[in-house]
Amino acid sequence: MTDVVLINPPLTRAGGPPKEHLGLGYLAAALRRNGLTVRMIDAPAFLLDFPALKKELMLEDFQVLGISTIFQDSLRPVLDWLVELRTDGLKAHVTIGAHPATFTYEQILSEYACVDSIVRGEGELTLVELAQAVTGGVEWRAVAGLAWRDGHDIIVNPPRPLVSDLNTLAWPARDIVKARPGAFEQVAAVSTRGCHEQCSFCSIATFYRSFKGRVWRRRAPDDVLDEIDAVRAIAPSPFVLLYDDSFIGPGKIGRRQAFEFAEALGRRQVDYVLGVSCRADQVEEGLFRDLKLAGLRSVFLGIESGNDETLDLFDKETTVETNRRALAILQKLGYAVEVGFIMFNPYTTFKQIRDDLDFLRDTGVGPDPRNLSDMGFFPGQPLLERVRTDGLLDGDGFGYTARFLDERVGELLATVKDGLWPARPAPGLMRAAQTLQAHKLGMAVQPAQLAPCNAAVDEFHQAVHDVIATSTSLYERGRPSVAALARLKREFSERLDDLTRTLDESLELGVRSAR
After folding, report:
1. What is the 3-state secondary structure (H, E, C) of 61-107?
2. I need a surface site. Which of 105, 144, 253, 445 has the fewest CB within 10 A?
3. Which residues partner with 399 through β-bridges?
4. C-alpha to C-alpha distance for 503 and 509, rounded to whole angstroms
């Protein structure tokens, strides 16, 4: 009999290729270090839906079922599936963890008798003690870090402090990578945990500040790099991504530690492409020049907005000029940059949309469909209570929806998401963007391709800017007619067709010249 089965449940949202669930790996490693047997099932990696996942579980005899649900909107489908499992005879102790369960433990335990316990906060130590108690046949209800049900009452045990030294944790178990070396497009690792900022749109700071201990912690750089080397020996991907909430810590100490990571990375002379995440106000030219020389190639930059009013609403403690400066430094150094950007929130105005469009175009970031997202809502966000107080929030902890203070902005967003884009992106434009990205990542690209691809991407950004700006003006004046929107969409599509033809001709000319 297996002691514990750990599950990453099927995704209930559209997305790209599956990503490794490192949290599940850390839990499995902690359990095995303490003598417990574990099976990991990563449904997205094996393309399992809920019926297929149920069949997998029927093949296993186990005592504890642990589920790590990363996305808030996945909770309800997972819980409904657990009801079905219980009906079909599941006897194991069921526990759920990760951010969504930590914030909605009361609702889960109140509405779903199929769940026995919730692991709140960082789960490694709590799950080990819970599993040891259940498999040993002793009382588990006193384990620190748990919430559980006593009749109609919800009991919250004393919280467990955050892990003070990340170097004491075992490397995450890589069962899925070993079973399917090509399951993930990139190698993943964690070099830090936590975030020292408190942005109002994010639940990460609330999660870590709910428990005692230092919010931002880091691992020894050489330990992180040793882990990456070990994983690449199994799955030799050229792409490595650090899943850190914030790669760089607070203040001067955080910068110094980032320099130490650069030094450790430089000593390795790595042959892979490394990517990290950070804030705009952490980008310093000297630091990122050293990181680039050491092997860093890709940066996810959380800028969120191109207007100061929204940055203030989000409590970013940055400015538009800070964002511009950070992007300029990274572009000067030749980094591949992806940005976090939230153009639409319940308080967005038409002026802010125009400011964001101009910012994205002028900085060379976009705009493109990826930058035109709206803010999602989930428990733990500081901004959630303001939106609720203002009467703009619907739903509950299993799934919130928000309305716009100006209804016309919401209608504009619906048009942008569903009514303006071609059914499929132009393949030529996608290849142009991929070519430029590959060049910045240090991959071989024909020099003759760069100028036409740059021109095509810039023109695409201008086209998107223009169609959204025109739509914004139409909605600001009132509600545009169906005919006006159809004409706008047609003109945009024709512009993309012309752009694609020009790109193809330029690339063909470059090929002939190279001969």
Report:
1. CEEEEEEECCCHHHHHHHHHHHHHHHHCCCCCEEEEECHHHHHCHHH
2. 253
3. 396
4. 10
Question: What pLDDT score was predicted for residue 511?
Answer: 47
User: Rounded to whole angstroms, what are the CA distances from 204 to 99, 121, 193, 200, 291?
Assistant: 8, 11, 10, 10, 26
Cα separation of 461 and 387, whole Å? 32
Q: CA separation (Å) from 374 to 101, 239, 303, 305, 492? A: 23, 29, 14, 11, 22
The Cα–Cα gap between 281 and 453 comes to 30
Assigned domain for 302 exists: no
pLDDT tens string 88-102: 999 999 999 999 999
Cβ atoms of residues 453 and 445 within 8 Å: no
CATH number, domain containing residue 105:
3.40.50.10550
Residue 454 belongs to a domain: yes
297/441 Cα distance (integer angstroms): 6
Q: How many Cα atoms sit within 13 Å of 147 on the Cβ side?
A: 20
Domain boundary among 156, 179, 204: 156
What are 354's two structure tokens? 């125009």
| Geometric angle at alpha carbon 224, from 219 and 228, rounded to 5° | 160
| Total tally of structural domains belonging to the chain | 2
Per residue in 26-63, pLDDT (tens digit) is 999 999 999 999 999 999 999 999 999 999 898 889 99
Q: What contacts 23, CB < 8 A, 6 or more positions away?
A: 68, 70, 98, 123
How big is the CA angle at 175 (ends 171 and 178), to the nearest 5 degrees? Answer: 105
Tell me the H-state helices in 221-307: 221-234, 251-268, 285-294
| Residue 404 to residue 411: CA distance in whole angstroms | 9
Do residues 218 and 192 touch, judged by C-beta distance below 8 A? yes
Q: List the domain range (segments joined by +) for residue 447.
A: 406-515
Residue 290 lies in a domain: no
Token pair belonging to 22: 């490192």
Report which residue type is found at 235: A
What pLDDT is recorded for position 97?
Answer: 97
Residue 169 domain flag: no
Tokens 């046949």, residue?
137
**Domain termination residue (choose one: 156, 179, 209):** 156
The DSSP bridge partners found for residue 7 are 41, 67
DSSP notation for 310-347 = HHHHTT----HHHHHHHHHHHHHTT-EEEEEE--B-TT
Residue 110 C-beta-side C-alpha neighbours within 13 Å: 9
Average pLDDT across the chain, whole number: 93
Taking the C-alpha atoms of residue 373 and residue 513, their distance in angstroms, rounded to an integer, is 41
User: How many Å apart are CA 11 and CA 71, to the nearest integer?
Assistant: 9
Task: Check if the beta carbon of residue 81 is closer than 8 Å to that of residue 111.
Answer: no
